[in-house]
Structures are given as C-alpha cells and as structure tokens.
Amino acid sequence: MPITLVNPMNEVAPESAAAAPRLPGLKGRTIALLDISKPGGSVFLDRLERLLKEQYGASVIREMKPTFAKPAPPDVIEKVRRADAVIEALAD
Amino acid sequence: MPGLRLLAILQTDCPTCRLITPYLNALAGGSAPVTGVSQDDEAATSDFVRQMEVRFPVERDPGSQLSKRLDVVTVPTLYVLDEHDRVIRQEPGFDKNILNEIAALLDRPAVATPHDGAPASKPGCTSRHLEPETEGTSPALNLHAPRGAEASTIELTDGEDPYEYCFRVFKDGLPVVPPTPDRVAKMLRAAGGDPRDVIARIPPCYGEATLEKIAANAVMAGCVPEMMRVLIPLVRAAADERFNAHGVQATTHFAAPLIVVNGPVRKELNFHCRQNVFSNVARSNSTLGRALQLILLNLGGARPDGIDMSALGNPGKFSFCIAENEEENPWEPLHVDAGFAREQSAISLFAAEAPHGVSEHNARTARGVLKAISYALATVWTYRACLAFEAMVVLGPEHVHTIHRDGFSKKDVRDFLFENTGVPLRCYAGEPGDGVAQRAQYKEIVIDGEPCYQKFRVSESIKIVVAGGTAGKFSAVLGSWSAGPRGSQMVTYPI
After folding, report:
1. Where are the domains of chain B?
2. Prediction pTM value
C-alpha cells in the first residue's frame, strides 16, 4: 500500500517582484548608498560617492543600517526608496 | 469606566496594524466596543478582515476624511472615546503595556503577555494621507494572520522506501521518522487546538509554523507527543524579535540556537542534565534540539547549503539542547535569573558557539577555578575583541562545589568573572585586527597588576548555568553571536 506523508516543509509561496528597470544613465539621478555597518563598507561607498558625483554627475544619498545583524528599519527603507537606484555595501 | 469605546485607525498592508489586530480581537471579545477604521479600499479591507479573522466592525475612511480630522500621523493609532465621542486617550503604534492599560480602562482583562512571541512594542507606518504619492501599490503581505493553510500530503509511489524519500526530498543529513498522518495526528492530539493555528512565522523566510507543521517536524525528529507542550513555546521564543533568528540563522558566524531547559519539565519529560549533557545522552534532549533545527530549516528556510551562510558551521545544528542540573546548583537556576519562579518550567534560547572546555583539576579554591574560566572567556570571539558579545559559562558540579564552599553567591561568580576577564593593553601594539579600532570604547581595568581592557560590557553578559556529571573537574565556556539589541538577546519562555 502506498505511504502518505504530511508535508513538513513551508508551503507559503514567496512573494515575487520584478526587478526595477535599468536606468538609462546616471546623470542627474539620485543614487542611495546604503552601508549595512560592516567594517570597510564606508571605504567602498566613499569611493563610489566620489565616482558617481565627479564622473557621472549623479547626486548621492548616504544611509546606514544601525546593525548588519537585522533587517533595515522602516525609516532607513523610507529614505532610500526616494532614490532612483540603491547600491548596498555588504560584508567586510 | 462605563461608556468608553475604542477606535483603531488601521492600514491593511501595515505590519504593525496586522500585529495589533489579534489583540484588538481579544479586546472586542465580550462587551468592549471596538471599531476599526481602514484607510484602504473595499477589496483590500475585506481581504484584511478575512485573513486576520477580524471580530470587530471595520469601517472605511474614504478620502482619509476622518484620519485628517483626527490628525492621524501613524497607523495603527488607537483612540479611546468617551460617551460624547471626546478623545480621552490617543496611542500610536503597538505597545503591549498600553494595550493592557486600555483593556483595564474598558473593564477587560489584560490581552497581551510578555511571552506570546510578539515584541513588547513596534512603531507603526505613516498614515495614508501623509504618504508621498507613489506609482501603484504593492500587494499586502499576509502577516500575523492567526490561521494558516492545511499542510498538503505527499503520496509515495508504491514500494518507495519512505526513509530514502525523506533523505531525497527534505534534504536533511540524518534519517528522519516519516511524518505519516497517524503519527502527526498523535502529536496534534497532545497539543490540542486547531492544526492550522499559526504559532509563529519563522525567519528568515517567515514560513508559517502552524501546529500541524510543528507536529510533522516533531515526528521527523523522533519526539514523543508530550514534547509538543515544550515545542510550542520554544517556536514562539525562536521567532521572538529579541532572539533575532533572522540574523542567527543567516550569519557567517558559528552561532546556533542552544536550548536550556529548566524547572519540573526536566523530570516530567526525562530531560538529562548530568554526564554528557551536551551529547547524545537522552531522547528528550536530542529530539527537542533536533525538532527545533528541523523547524528552522524546513519552515524558516535557512538551509546550510543556502541562506545559512555559516563559514564553518556548528555541530549543534544537528541538535543543541541541555537541561540545567538544578539539583547540583546551590544558587538560582537560569530561569530564576530571568524572573521566573523556580517551580515554573521554562526554556531559554542562546545563540551559542560550540562549548570550549575548561579542564581544571588542580585549583583548590573558588578564585583558582574562576581564574581558569576567565582565561577561556578572554578569548571569546577573538582575543582583542571586547563588548560586542556575551558568553554562557556551564559550570560542572565539582567546580560548583569548590566555588560554593568558598562562600561565592551566583552574583559573586558573575562579578568575579566580569572583573577578572580582560585583554592586556600590550596585545594592541601589534598588527591591526578585530577589536583594535574599537579601543576608544573599551574600559581600562587592572587585572593582577596588569592594565587590561575589560572583555565584557556588563556582569550580566556572562550567563551562568550548572550542568554535567559529578565526576571530573570540568566546565565549559560558550561564546555568543553579536549580542544585545543590535544582535541576539537570550530569551526565556515559560512552558
């Protein structure tokens, strides 16, 4: 006789979202640079900020998560969503 | 007070509004008049009412007229109105203490307890009429609904070995007991309640831990049905925001959730607290630890070949559960430190590294034993890092005997370890590395005549547990993951 099992796995379908369309260019755009507060993130983002402003004519918003160990709090998400694109610095 | 009623301004896609709704349901039960006001359209509001099983009337607020008149800034906002509809109290966001104060105003019993898995408080979202205009809306995530879906069933093809099927499909590295409907039904009978009741949503993927899903995983782990009464509060504790399973389960660090069992349940369900306490010594320890791990994997989604990014892992991820040897503990056990009565059974969850042994057979005094332990504590995380973590010290009974004989209270033990654990300043002269850049935040102390930085932030960063066998002078130190409100905090839940 075939055996029946109760499915022990998560069956809630994940919400899916389409990726944002690629920006046609960076000039005049606002780019959010999000530091998750891992060591070294600011080094990477400082350099990107300079490149974006000097070479691409973009403006920059800098934001920082209070801790890399938890999801970004709503106020940080609220601020970075005003930008045209977000670059997030992960890891050390 | 008579004549009072409660108005709750809600948004259907606000996580805090969803979080507060079951508590408003509890307030509305019986006679307390509660009215919800939704800032969203008919379709979103009726979805919300259905998903959340709302048991109070919900009106709509077209054009946000009421919200503007009341000057609502965030949702949820609760308004207590008197019989002339004058606002006598206004409370934005979610706060358990405030909900209980409002319950008292409405002559209702308290509706929020500290150990239901929900945070003590949570800020809300911007009121709809104050939000910046955005293009389109995203669908509301179905968070905090009290009832989940029934588990599907899987028919194996005739002749297929169910153990091999479980290996192949559930992808766990050890055999599991096949979760057949009759085995799951036994677990559910022991638990009581509706199989679709959602006990928690497990980070990082927030799978629904319904009673039925918990039962199926408990079967797989080999639990006896009576273990459900421990597993239910344990699952709530694992999803408690303070424990931060979102981080613990995804980190590159070594941490794994260590369960510490306290109180009468140890004897009622045969949890082992003596020799080999960290090993494969008792069915209850092994299967409870394994059930939690399977639930975290199968429902939380942090699989060791995927979202769980631990560089080296932790053998505790198979199973990591000890009971405190309260009989050999002359002080207060761990759950009493957390504020519970000794007779209250409880489980604690601590994001721990593997145990690091302290074998100290020749120290004759409390100070001698504790000195040995302090040197193990000084290397937690890495030698020059201080403050960002905690540690659990599991004292073996022979060490406890020596320490207690010298008149040390549990607080004395903690304070001694706190005051005597440090990193010599000379260590910071060399290469850069972890802990060096943070020196300005460290506190300088003197240990045995040598200037040191104090290793731990406060004395309470060191958690003391008594466990293990009575033969042998051994203790263990377990480092934590990143600790405190920015990392993981130990949580203790009553059973």
Report:
1. 5-130, 245-494
2. 0.92
